[in-house]
Design brief:
The chain is an alpha+beta fold. The protein is 40% helix and 29% strand. The protein is built from four helices and six strands, in the order αβββααβββα. The strands form two sheets. The protein has a three-stranded antiparallel sheet with strand order 1-2-3, with helices on one face. A three-stranded antiparallel sheet has the order 4-5-6, covered by helices on one side. Strand 2 and strand 3 form a beta hairpin. The longest helix is centred in the middle third of the chain and has 23 residues. It starts with a helix and ends with a helix.
């Protein structure tokens, strides 16, 4: 679900907490719901109608979380993502992130790809030239 991660994201970034607004469509016995969420003055809207208000709010939170996280990653590529991910995982009680790195050889060079596991979810980073860079990039994807 996405409401709690969005709320955590806003606390970490020290921005206003999400505010949800929902609209109902259809007859009372067959209502569908569509939500939007406002985060730090920016509005994000779910793309589909859902069967319940809760589902609609999660759909809007997902749109917001993805948009905000991608924007934040694009703005700052020099952050210590391994440390940030470790701190976030510990703060949320997920345990320490676990990294696995594979190495392949291509035309006289080694290529590293890392995967990090946090709370049972695996995140794979892009191909890298060093093991450290591969792990940092995987942490960035997970964060």
């Amino acid at each position: 679900m996405y409401k709690k991660p969005l709320q955590t994201y806003t606390r970490i970034k020290n921005i206003t907490l999400p505010a949800y607004y929902c609209e109902r469509d259809g007859p009372i016995h067959g209502s569908r719901f569509k939500a939007r969420v406002v985060v730090d003055g920016e509005t994000f809207e779910a793309t589909e109608y859902c069967n319940s208000v809760e589902e609609a709010e999660h759909a809007a939170a997902k749109v917001a979380l993805i948009s905000l996280a991608l924007g934040s990653i694009e703005k700052d590529d020099s952050r210590p993502y391994k440390s940030l991910l470790k701190e976030l995982a510990q703060k949320e009680g997920f345990g320490l992130p676990k990294y696995k790195t594979s190495i392949t050889c291509e035309k006289d060079s080694q290529i590293f790809v890392s995967t990090v596991e946090v709370k049972g979810e695996k995140y794979c980073g892009p191909r890298s030239r060093t093991k450290k860079e591969a792990q940092t990039r995987a942490a960035k994807v997970a964060y």
